[in-house]
Amino acid sequence: MDPGMTECQYSQISTVASSLMESQLGKKIPKRKWQTFPGRNKFYCNGRIMMGRQTGVFYLTMVLIVVTSGLFFAFDCPFLASSLTPAIPAIGGFLFLFVMGMLFRASFSDPGVLPRATPDEAAHLESQIGDDDINSRSPPRTQEVVINGQTVKLKYCFTCKIFRPPRVSHCSLCDNCVERFDHHCPWVGNCVGKRNYRFFYLFILSLSFLTIFIFAFVITHIVLRSSQTGFLSALKDSPARYPSKVVVCFFSVWSIVGLSGFHTYLIGSNQTTNEDIKGLWSSKRGKGNYNPYSYSSVITNCCAALCGPLPPSLIDRRGFIQPDTPQTAIQSNGTTAYVASQPQAHMEVTSDSCFHSSLWPPYLFVLPTVVSAKPPTLRLLGQTENGYLDPL
Amino acid sequence: MSIAHSFFPYKILVSSSPFLFECWTTHSLQDLRQQAPIAAKVFVQRDYTSGTICQFQTKFPATLETRIDKQQFEDTIRKLNSLYAEAEKLGGRSYLEGCLACLTAYTVFLCMETHYEKVLKKIASYIQDQNDKIYAPRGLLLTDPIERGLRVVEITVFEDRSTGPGR
Fold first, then answer.
1. B118 — contact with chain A (CB < 8 Å)?
2. Contacts of B9 in chain A (CB under 8 A)
3. Is B103 an 8 Å CB contact of chain A?
């Protein structure tokens, strides 16, 4: 607890001193774009890691996987390696590392967030919408576009001030428009969208293999032991471990295998969870209703989703903010408005970051070093904002 | 790009997730139009008729009629569209890259750029080239769409001193 809190306090003192000096000398340390990101996301490692707002369930996921696998490696693997083959812990180890790798990749990457419109763009769109309302009878703030023969309605996003491109949806939890939005996954602590869907899918697929693997070999262990010493004495040898592992694995197997199967179907038909739940492309809606995004074959759909080109992040979170560059419409009103309109979001980022930095020492072995809450703690001081945001 | 170009050297910023790539270049536009005010901004929107791939509309905006030839504008947009199509193309190369990445647990991208990032660099240099040769002499400036989240191609129209203020 103490190192984390000390880290917070040290950061506060150092930034106050440096910002005062800077405002006197007229120099500025350029801010990175993640520090003024308008969505409700959390950033760590100086913008390299991006997660959703509620990360508690993500830690639970990690704990469940690590503890269950740890118990398996500690208590079952020695017996299985000696009585069957050492390949069992090797394969288990590989599966475990792959699962954790995919989990981190899905949780920490940008899901495909669309940056909000610049003030000029927003004004241009507003003027266009204004003209259309006068002339046409169509509902305001929608556009229709024909994609591969299907009519798709594009809605106007009032938060991001853009017409949402096809397959883009606004996540209310993260307050961002996300490309090819699938769903917001609390287990992964992030949205699942265009850029991290394949990692999410590989995570649940490899996790289903891991749980089946552990489940099968725990049963094998019990069977082998009971053939040697009898069933009851086998259970007596490790009274608490087996039931908990078996129970966790049993329920996980059914839910995770089911989820993997569902996402395999979605990939094959090139749909998102969002579209499937709404039944957008189901034949029940009409005779001529079909999915305009689907390729000709299931194999092409799978290859496109899993092995297709990975688009880069559009939000450039580690880039430096240039003075006088167009910020989003909310921030362009000036420093006062910025502080006034966004205090809640950034204050929460601050308090959460401080809170997390105090809890993170135990998790440092798993997660990379948290940035020393230096930039977020600026928000607590208030006056330092102006020193950084004053142009020139 | 931004209004800052009136006052700062022209700067191209291309970033990919682990790496930040910047290159500074002084633009001829700066020499000619140091204090040139912006008359208008034209936004070329995305064309979604082929799906979610990145394509821009080739419709010629009315605001540019007096400034540039329609054919030249369409050629620029078509070339941009073909470059973006090349970046997102599904084929043997992209599948190979995807499989290699999966096998190495995506650590291979710490050493090399993705195909998409390479094409984005090509696009950035193409836009600069077009700005230098065609658009800057006519008082126009193309902004790289990646800086606008691949939503629009922003064309800044500067006031033409020869015709005076107020077009």
1. no
2. none
3. no
Which chain A residues in 139-168 lie under 8 Å from chain B, judged by CB atoms? 145-148, 152, 154, 162, 165-167
Q: In DSSP terms, which residues pair with A177 in a beta bridge? A: A114, A170
pTM of this prediction exceeds 0.80 = no
> Which ipTM did the prediction report?
0.75
Determine the pLDDT at residue A184. Answer: 94
pLDDT digits (tens, 9 = 90+) for B58-81: 999 888 888 888 999 999 999 999
Distance (Å) of CA A16 to CA A374, A381, A387:
11, 8, 10
Q: Does A304 touch chain B (CB under 8 A)?
A: yes
Higher pLDDT, B115 or B18: B115
pLDDT of A392: 37
pLDDT at position A236, please? 65
Q: Which long-range contacts (CB under 8 A, 24 or more apart) does A56-59 make?
A: A57/A186, A57/A187, A57/A189, A58/A107, A58/A186, A58/A187, A58/A188, A58/A189, A58/A190, A59/A363
Residues of chain A with pLDDT under 50: 1-19, 22, 138, 329-392
Residue A157 annotated as catalytic: no
DSSP for A142-211, written as a single string: EEEEEETTEEEEEEEETTTTEEPPTT-EEETTTTEEETT--EEETTTTEEE-TTTHHHHHHHHHHHHHHH
Strands A113-114 and A176-178: antiparallel
Using CA atoms, how far residue B3 sits from A315, B11, B15, B158, in Å, is 20, 12, 20, 10
> Which whole-number Å values give the CA distances from B152 to A115, A261, A278, B13, B42, in the listed order?
12, 38, 29, 17, 9
How is residue A189 written in tokens?
């602590």
